[in-house]
Amino acid sequence: MFSKGQIIFGVLFFVIFAIVIAMTYKKDLKLHRMFYAGSIWILIAFIAFILFIVAIKFLFKV
Known about the structure:
Elements: H1 4-27, H2 29-35, H3 39-59
């Protein structure tokens, strides 16, 4: 299992990492809105494609 020190390190690492990621995202938010404005449609198309593949698998069982 994990020692007490490893658990403390893991928790601290996760918390600090999440804070740094949030600060970086907040700093770059203006650029994200400018360069990735229509990217939600790519995500929707990707999810629809995966659902289409799953539907084909269940409809045409061999």
